[in-house]
Amino acid sequence: MNREYEFVFKGFNPSREEYYGTILTLANGVIGVRGEIELYPSKYGFFASGIYDYTPIFYREIVNFPRVNGLYIKVNSKPILLANCDNLNLTRRLNISQGILYTSLECRFGKAELSYNSLRLVHRKRRNILLQHSRINLKNSEKLSIETPVELDKVNPLIPANIYIKHYEVVDMDIGGDYTSLLLKTIDNRYKVAIASKTIVLGHVEHVDKYTLTDKVVEVYDVDFKNMPIEVTRIVSISTSRETEDPLDKAVGELEKAVRDGRDLLVAEHISSWKSLWDNIKLRIDGDVEVEEKLLFYAFHLLQLVDDEQEYIMIPARGLHGLGYRGHVFWDTDIYTLPFYIAFTPEAARRILMYRYRILDKARLNARKNGYKGAQYPWESCDDGIEATPREIPLDVLGENRIRILTGDMEHHITADVAYAVHLYYEFTGDEEFLLNYGLEILFETARFWASRVEYDDDKKAYVIRNVMGPDEYHPSVDNSFYTNVMARKNLELAVKYYELALEKGNKWIDKVIEIGVTSEEVAYWRKIVNNIFIPCKNNGFCEEFEGYSNLRNMTTKTKGLGIVKVGEKFLELKDTQIIKQADVVAALFLLYDEFPKHVVEVNYKYYLPRTTHESSLSLPMYAGLAAKLGRIDEAYKLFKLALKTDLEDLYGNTSDGFHVATAGGLWTTLLLGFLGIKASSGKLVKIEPKLPEHWKSVELNISIGGRKLHLRVRKNSVQVDDKSRGEAKRIE
Amino acid sequence: MNREYEFVFKGFNPSREEYYGTILTLANGVIGVRGEIELYPSKYGFFASGIYDYTPIFYREIVNFPRVNGLYIKVNSKPILLANCDNLNLTRRLNISQGILYTSLECRFGKAELSYNSLRLVHRKRRNILLQHSRINLKNSEKLSIETPVELDKVNPLIPANIYIKHYEVVDMDIGGDYTSLLLKTIDNRYKVAIASKTIVLGHVEHVDKYTLTDKVVEVYDVDFKNMPIEVTRIVSISTSRETEDPLDKAVGELEKAVRDGRDLLVAEHISSWKSLWDNIKLRIDGDVEVEEKLLFYAFHLLQLVDDEQEYIMIPARGLHGLGYRGHVFWDTDIYTLPFYIAFTPEAARRILMYRYRILDKARLNARKNGYKGAQYPWESCDDGIEATPREIPLDVLGENRIRILTGDMEHHITADVAYAVHLYYEFTGDEEFLLNYGLEILFETARFWASRVEYDDDKKAYVIRNVMGPDEYHPSVDNSFYTNVMARKNLELAVKYYELALEKGNKWIDKVIEIGVTSEEVAYWRKIVNNIFIPCKNNGFCEEFEGYSNLRNMTTKTKGLGIVKVGEKFLELKDTQIIKQADVVAALFLLYDEFPKHVVEVNYKYYLPRTTHESSLSLPMYAGLAAKLGRIDEAYKLFKLALKTDLEDLYGNTSDGFHVATAGGLWTTLLLGFLGIKASSGKLVKIEPKLPEHWKSVELNISIGGRKLHLRVRKNSVQVDDKSRGEAKRIE
Fold first, then answer.
1. A631 touches B at CB < 8 Å
2. Residue A48, phi then psi, degrees to nearest 5
3. How far is CA B413 from CA A137, A634, B449, B470, B550, in A?
4. Contact at 8 Å (CB) between B149 and B199?
5. Of A152, A302, B426, B533, which one is least surrounded by beta carbons within 10 A?
């Protein structure tokens, strides 16, 4: 990345601040700090990846920890709140090349004229460190006070939103020394989280004080300007019991080190780490700078969710960017985000799959609980892998009116999605070590689930899967969902394929098969199901989303699938119509494109598009990707551009709840597998079949395949692949 | 009251502050403000009588509204928190004669020496007004800032306590004018509450500012002392939609009026109102000033719960003093507190019973719901009269472990308790208007409940009541509870008696009987039950608490009933023993003393006392009262003195949750009906049979009987009654 990518946002509006809170979030895979401006109160603190606590209704949820980066300025005991400033001029620049958020502000406050400039970073290399540096000047007034508290009043809202839960309590606190340190524990006692904070003020400080209230620890500085701007550097170190048994010791150690090394070094190191990360991508779209920039914005936030040290990485549906979906992990991770990570940070992709391996035992228990064999992944999961989907959500405080949530009971396809993700990871990376030690077990155990899940239908003389919900959540409890059945078939097929591969490879591969206890009889049964599972397609190539879909009321949406339609709570009324929420048959056809004749794909794409509301943010990328593959480039581009608005223009109106990781991943999947048509197998690049929009002269990017870093230069009619690892160049016409 | 009664408390300890918060609560029957010191943060705001909101588990609860009387002082941007003051010298004086809380404080804060004096009152006459006046001086430092916020972060804790609910939201706010005003609504939209606040600072104020944050509205004053103390007067007016359709208009109007009239007038008016109230009591115990003072302390808090204007008055189990029992109303109101109000503020007693009349329709529905006829009062109720007893209380956030609460399903005696209270009220007041228009309906409808509740037992050839819980909550689900059966019998007997009275009185009384639809057949059936209900007593006079009690393991407590024993969650283990929680048989014998032979009373008193833990604060007064009646004066006095410690010495360790209204009322009941042996009938004083402790030379007090104010002067062997209304004097030897 030679040029710098920067996103500029102007102005301040309290009611929009939570939107900026999400899109300006800074994270490093371990800690996440939302982007609300430090000068204004916020209900958010920080998130720590993988740190959850018990909560009513939702089982467990990601913890909203104390705010550690608020910086509150008072002139004459009156806080400068942006809402009461005159001539406010606020500009925020998110520099994604550097991974730094710059804030600059000027305003009048009575007679006083304030100018404020800050940078904020969540350190890419020092995973414990948050740095915020502010330069403050004041004209027509001499004195102000600055508070840099640790705000211990942050809570998680429940349902209804006037109920809150505080997920942590203070175990230990030290404000006596050179810095402030706190040790917190989650209420369920599963985790400890330490915070060490140091504020360094350069300028004429008249008084410094520290004190604690029940809900905050405050450092306050009374400053006399004497015509000299002041500088406030805040370094906060956060450590959790996920990384060490003594997080307080670690947090303090990292803080001391950071203070010693100083701000300039911290910033330089951080920018340099981000530069390395971006080197893995280096996207250039000649002819469409706008799309290039926007894709990189989404890439930035995806990259912020991973790090190089955690044993496993959880990708919550809304990232480390908000409380949406309570920090739970869905199929979004496996199907939507994984291709991005596989292509650019395969080590992270491996760690993301390690989360699935880590909870495999719980998926086994889940299958047992539901009367099945093998491993059934929970529809929503947290740190411990237990099914965390709420079964009911109360609509009033007494819970007299409730919405029954069926996804947890019925969206069984996630189990096949995980198996698919393991396979895709292997196709691009050829990572045999992972396949042998973890992948096989996931593939076999998920296959076992499906083998116990299918039933043989004597009338159809085929295996069927009854009573499920596909990705389209407008239609609960259906039989023979196309998506579910073809993905289940794929899962079984993959198990057979990798079983055969293992036998071929011999030695420890065979030991592993024996260890898992897979027998040839079992595999024979899997094959039988693969060859004889019912797929609800007609002779003309049209596939019903599920059995009986054709009999439902035939309707199309007012946007004909080229815009989003918000149905809201009226979705219950749609179950008797052919209106669907999101790519379902289309999603399967995109994921398994090579397994269906093109006319089948085309018939179904054309049928479902005008019947789709895209009310799920997971829908548009799948349609865009499949449209590209089908050569319907203009339509693909239109859908793709619409999806690009998801967070950048708050398309769904709920970006304030967190970043849409599935859309972000889906956009990149559309680019990689749709527009560029990249295909890999067993760690080798197989082909690139570009379907570029007319005005895209070329697309250049780096990608990792089979452990090699390739540079691709793709034009409509030519593809050039440089193997940066070997210095080779290959041209594919 | 010629002398002034003042309770003095010295020192400050953050962990004890919530205890003082309860015992220094100021209230006027309409609003309640806890006694936490204004200089220190508190989680409490104010309570408004009768204002409840939906809440999980507990159905509805009294709302913890914003704090409106915090006064926060900062020197050099650092708050003077009492916890970080040196040489702290704090004295608080609760002057119950005036109804004023005086605070005086001196401390060193760095170099600065602060002296602070304040008075606080919740106005007795102007039911909307809270006044707090502070005089502040500072030595060795010139400047400080003072914040007088409305703190909008106050919430109610749920279970577990790390879950909170905020029961209100701001509908309207105006900080632009001469004062600050806010209109709040409860989340369930049932109530509006308005706050208007004005702070007047006298002194060298350099800057005044007002601003709002999401969780507070702040007025801040920067003050330069220039060797002159400053005075801060805060007047807050609170109005609710219980009193007017436009509470904002009312609150502002009352505030403006109060500001216009000025502090001196407000204080004088307030003290004068309290003087009138105390004139109704004028207790003097010659020979025991300590008991006299302590009784007046409890009287003060009881008087704080009533006012002269509300249509009905709710007496929550913990007063307007705390969140204990969520502000719910229990039998504590009817059986324990009512005698006090009947004797000294009969108008208030009437309004308290009007609460029972107001919810009579809901009691009818409750009976229907449970398969009975007539009216069954809920064990716990709130503003709307629906049964509000939680059925289960979760012990962990997921509710996997729960305590099943059986009281709501089984403590049916409350229905008879209400009827008893109506009767007692009539006996002392002779209030025929109430009896005719409200009392009869309560008496008949509750009798109907019992008539449908009893069953005829063919073996016993008697009516029985199965599957109830008596006041002793260690023994759930018993048959033929002595307390329940004798109180049910009393209820039916009263219905018969007042039916006969109505027939005798004729005219509109008969119209009322017809309106309620009571027939002579129905009354005949009531009589039949009265004459033939099973009471589990033996020939020797011993009465089983319930059938089979004698077969339980015979144990006594280690204190033999002369101290309290805390069993806590182990109470479940006691159900197979004869250990009981509180006066049960003894309570019935006290309430219905004249209906049992003295030897029966004595046998049972002696049996149950050593088997009672007194773990309920309702126990000691009943035992003390009955001991006095039995002439066991020393024991009575010992138990009475122990009960006097309840809130004054935090006997149960939970005074921080609120004031024990039942104990307070029970202490006065012990005095009036026990030590003094006052008996009235149909609004006439029938007799006074004093059983005074040896060292009590005389007891003097005023009492209302039959609308007349009597002055009693009771000695061991003589009684003098002066009718203050008529100027008569009568001596009873």
1. no
2. -120, 125
3. 72, 78, 11, 7, 22
4. no
5. B533
Which of these, B530, B641, B538, lies nearest to B592 by C-alpha position?
B530
| Residue in B108, B103, B40 with CA at minimum distance from that of residue B71 | B40
Pick the CATH number of A6-279 from 2.70.98.40, 3.40.190.10, 3.40.50.10260, 3.40.720.10: 2.70.98.40
From chain A, the residues in CB contact with B112 under 8 A are none
Contact assignment for B78 to A209 by CB distance below 8 Å: yes
Q: Which amino acid is at B176?
A: G
State which amino acid sits at residue A634. Answer: D
Q: What is the pLDDT of residues A666-715, one digit of tens each?
A: 999 999 999 999 999 999 999 999 999 999 999 999 999 999 999 999 99
Closest listed residue to residue B588, CA positions, set B471, B688, B672: B471
Domain positions in chain B are: 6-279, 282-352+617-700, 359-545
Q: Which of A2, A66, A39, A225 is nearest to A120 (CA)?
A: A39
CA–CA dist B499, B502 (Å, integer): 5
Cis bond leading into A160, ω under 30°? yes
- Say if residue A560 is exposed, middle or buried (CB neighbours under 10 Å; 0-12, 13-18, 19+): exposed
Minimal CA separation from B72 to chain A, in Å: 12
Residue A396 with chain B: CB contacts under 8 Å = 54
Tokens of B552: 């339980």
The one-letter amino acid at B411: E
**Could you tell me if A124 and A277 are in contact, meaning their C-beta atoms sit under 8 angstroms apart?**
yes
Cβ neighbors of B74 (< 8 A, separation 6 or more) are: A77, B80, B144, B145, B146, B147
Distance CA A197, CA A149 (A): 9
Tell me the sheet residues that pair with A713: A700, A720
More confidently predicted of B142 and A53? A53
DSSP letter string over A215-264? TEEEEEEEEE-TT--EEEEEEEEEEETTT-S-HHHHHHHHHHHHHHH-HH
Please compute, for residue A61, the number of CA atoms within 13 A of its CA located in the half-sphere on the CB side: 26
Is residue B473 part of the annotated active site? The answer reads yes
In the set A473, A544, A545, A615, the catalytic residue is A473
Closest alpha carbon to A642 in A560, A557, A564: A564
pLDDT at A730 over 80: no
3-state SS string for B357-396: HHCHHHHHHHHHHCCCCCCCCCCCECCCCCCCCCCEEECC
Q: Which CATH architecture group holds B359-545?
A: Alpha/alpha barrel (1.50)
Contact between A626 and A593 under an 8 Å Cβ cutoff? The reply is: yes
Site from B36, B60, B63, B77 to mutate, A interface, most A CB atoms within 10 angstroms: B77
Q: Which CATH number is A375-613 given?
A: 1.50.10.10
C-alpha–C-alpha distance, residues B595 and B420, integer Å: 14
Q: What is the pTM of this model?
A: 0.91
Across the interface, whether the CB atoms of A211 and B78 are under 8 A apart is answered: yes
| Cis peptide bond prior to A597, omega within 30° of 0 | no
Are B6 and B95 spatial neighbours (Cβ–Cβ below 8 Å)? Answer: yes
CB A380 within 8 A of CB A343: no
Q: Which helix (H) or strand (E) holds B685?
A: strand B684-688
Nearest CA in chain B to A224: B76
* Residue A345 near residue A330, CB atoms below 8 Å: no
Q: Using an 8 Å Cβ cutoff, are A544 and A535 in contact?
A: no
Q: Which residue among the candidates B18, B473, B493, B615 is catalytic per the annotation? A: B473
Of B56, B79, B221, the CB nearest to A211: B79
pLDDT in tens, A549-596: 999 999 999 999 999 999 988 888 899 999 999 999 999 999 999 999
Class of domain A281-358+632-733: mainly beta
Global ipTM: 0.84
